[in-house]
């Protein structure tokens, strides 16, 4: 929504005039000016259902004389407001010129108390065990707008407590307030309608259609939008109360879409990942597969110590050994789209200090036309912008293999790229010296002369450039394993060894001053000032490149996707 | 400053024998010997602990033997010296208490940190933690003084329940399953 292009209108909320975008949903319009209208079923990215009735407010418009069309004035000369005899739901109303609403009147308060009372009639007293406690709309609105006591003495409904809706979602039916957000999500966003209500009245039950289950890769979004604790995530269920968790903004590394995320941690341990709203990238959604990526932090094959020739070594020894290996003979660097822009920049500086050919592997796979693109790395475009590569790289390292076979390369420095998987046999690797910067053990780490363990995306800060050429930064969320440094710091030290200059680890703002000066697309960018929703870069220089990405939720490919032109290669 | 003149007159013969002081002392001793004893022979003898004494925090079971804590972690949140640490856990579906769904996998209270303020007891929505009459805590190492779940239940024992919230919940579910109310 481009606010600057939308006409602003004046509406009157509780006697105060506000300028809001014309036609904006009244709930959002009020939120924009700091007035809360409580709501359960309304969600800005879903259709309006209007079934919870929590957003009832009093509405009125300036009266006009039917005969003349002239505004009717009261005795004081001010326009007379024709208040509707009954309250109306704000979520099904739009901001229009002259609209008057009352959100604090006695009638509005009574409406809210009544709605809350009905919702709580059959709601169980599960708060001590409910995962939603602490971020539960029902809890919040019960304290803010509820009556504060219960008049209900009858028996509460009994409904199933642990229905498995799918592999990742469990339903507690007693807690459901029938807002239908999840039903609408499956139908409208996921376009995979599997959920519906059965039975009537207070017996209404959320369930999957016969023979179906909630197994789409977007199923956990229903857990996010559930305003109560009815839908819970199997992975996060009963793990930690949310009031202990701290959300930190991050970027999903699943593919080049660059989904904006929030990572929830307590005392250095990650408990869950949820989407962060960005209307230009992922709206308020993310994939289920992206939510499990935090498990790499505590993966069994995580590398935690520096190794030289298979033996544990200190950071200094490892860097020294890399320095020696770089002087043995011609060097090849293998960069990756998993590196941040900062890592790639430092690699460029390393390649300037110790020249060598830079190889890059294109990781392509299946996309889903939504929030998973065909490029499986978050930052291929960073490689283009920092000048590591000039065009679309190959999906293999055959050119490097040919050079190795010819004995033209003595040392390979790989940055998290499994070169065995990329087509170089272990026998060939043994002919040269492999230096490996990476977080996890993989097929090539056994053949590496020097292993430098790297930090995962959750343990360092930096930035990626997604498929839209949108520069997005991520923050450090948890501390890394003891003794490990970001790749940028390791590279700075290595460059220091080569040039003989004192080597201090550069901070992101320092690096960005250099990057902004050197790369025209990045000119004027300051790291601290990259907005949380990202910064769109000028992509015109790369408009003709055959990227593999196809149309996604907020992405239109500029050039023909590579599949269409593969015969040219 | 006022000056107080102390009487320094020389002792007479009777006083010079020191006998009046010695006899006076013996009289006090004899008087006390004949009165009832007020000293407690701690630790063999223990004082009577008044009701609502704030001793060591403990976990309690309800009269049916079910552990009352559902690991809501409110005590962990409210604990001023951060002495409490809970690892929540799910109750499996074949368990007798399956309808409660959640209980602590482990419940640790660091008695070296605990300040006996009683806020955990005050905040507990399930009436599962009580500061009872244990007041003497000792151990040979720091680890020993971090009390785990088993020890806390052993100290806590069973307390009378006013509500039987979860029993009633189970009853309602059984009634519903049998085709009763709803």
TrEMBL record, chain A:
<dbReference type="GO" id="GO:0051539">
    <property type="term" value="F:4 iron, 4 sulfur cluster binding"/>
</dbReference>
<dbReference type="Pfam" id="PF00384">
    <property type="entry name" value="Molybdopterin"/>
</dbReference>
<comment type="similarity">
    <text>Belongs to the complex I 75 kDa subunit family.</text>
</comment>
<feature type="domain" description="4Fe-4S ferredoxin-type">
    <location>
        <begin position="167"/>
        <end position="186"/>
    </location>
</feature>
<dbReference type="GO" id="GO:0051537">
    <property type="term" value="F:2 iron, 2 sulfur cluster binding"/>
</dbReference>
<keyword id="KW-1278">Translocase</keyword>
<dbReference type="InterPro" id="IPR050123">
    <property type="entry name" value="Prok_molybdopt-oxidoreductase"/>
</dbReference>
<dbReference type="InterPro" id="IPR017900">
    <property type="entry name" value="4Fe4S_Fe_S_CS"/>
</dbReference>
<dbReference type="Pfam" id="PF22117">
    <property type="entry name" value="Fer4_Nqo3"/>
</dbReference>
<keyword id="KW-0004">4Fe-4S</keyword>
<feature type="domain" description="4Fe-4S Mo/W bis-MGD-type">
    <location>
        <begin position="245"/>
        <end position="301"/>
    </location>
</feature>
<dbReference type="InterPro" id="IPR017896">
    <property type="entry name" value="4Fe4S_Fe-S-bd"/>
</dbReference>
<feature type="domain" description="4Fe-4S His(Cys)3-ligated-type">
    <location>
        <begin position="107"/>
        <end position="146"/>
    </location>
</feature>
<dbReference type="InterPro" id="IPR006656">
    <property type="entry name" value="Mopterin_OxRdtase"/>
</dbReference>
<dbReference type="GO" id="GO:0048038">
    <property type="term" value="F:quinone binding"/>
</dbReference>
<keyword id="KW-0472">Membrane</keyword>
<dbReference type="GO" id="GO:0046872">
    <property type="term" value="F:metal ion binding"/>
</dbReference>
<keyword id="KW-0001">2Fe-2S</keyword>
<dbReference type="InterPro" id="IPR036010">
    <property type="entry name" value="2Fe-2S_ferredoxin-like_sf"/>
</dbReference>
<dbReference type="Pfam" id="PF10588">
    <property type="entry name" value="NADH-G_4Fe-4S_3"/>
</dbReference>
<keyword id="KW-0411">Iron-sulfur</keyword>
<dbReference type="InterPro" id="IPR054351">
    <property type="entry name" value="NADH_UbQ_OxRdtase_ferredoxin"/>
</dbReference>
From TrEMBL, chain B:
<feature type="binding site">
    <location>
        <position position="114"/>
    </location>
    <ligand>
        <name>[4Fe-4S] cluster 2</name>
    </ligand>
</feature>
<dbReference type="GO" id="GO:0005506">
    <property type="term" value="F:iron ion binding"/>
</dbReference>
<keyword id="KW-0408">Iron</keyword>
<feature type="binding site">
    <location>
        <position position="124"/>
    </location>
    <ligand>
        <name>[4Fe-4S] cluster 1</name>
    </ligand>
</feature>
<dbReference type="InterPro" id="IPR017900">
    <property type="entry name" value="4Fe4S_Fe_S_CS"/>
</dbReference>
<dbReference type="GO" id="GO:0048038">
    <property type="term" value="F:quinone binding"/>
</dbReference>
<comment type="subunit">
    <text>NDH-1 is composed of 14 different subunits. Subunits NuoA, H, J, K, L, M, N constitute the membrane sector of the complex.</text>
</comment>
<dbReference type="GO" id="GO:0051539">
    <property type="term" value="F:4 iron, 4 sulfur cluster binding"/>
</dbReference>
<keyword id="KW-0479">Metal-binding</keyword>
<keyword id="KW-0472">Membrane</keyword>
<feature type="binding site">
    <location>
        <position position="120"/>
    </location>
    <ligand>
        <name>[4Fe-4S] cluster 2</name>
    </ligand>
</feature>
<dbReference type="GO" id="GO:0005886">
    <property type="term" value="C:plasma membrane"/>
</dbReference>
<keyword id="KW-0874">Quinone</keyword>
<keyword id="KW-0677">Repeat</keyword>
<comment type="similarity">
    <text>Belongs to the complex I 23 kDa subunit family.</text>
</comment>
<keyword id="KW-1278">Translocase</keyword>
<keyword id="KW-0830">Ubiquinone</keyword>
<dbReference type="GO" id="GO:0050136">
    <property type="term" value="F:NADH dehydrogenase (quinone) (non-electrogenic) activity"/>
</dbReference>
<dbReference type="Pfam" id="PF12838">
    <property type="entry name" value="Fer4_7"/>
</dbReference>
<feature type="binding site">
    <location>
        <position position="72"/>
    </location>
    <ligand>
        <name>[4Fe-4S] cluster 1</name>
    </ligand>
</feature>
<feature type="domain" description="4Fe-4S ferredoxin-type">
    <location>
        <begin position="105"/>
        <end position="134"/>
    </location>
</feature>
<protein>
    <recommendedName>
        <fullName>NADH-quinone oxidoreductase subunit I</fullName>
        <ecNumber>7.1.1.-</ecNumber>
    </recommendedName>
</protein>
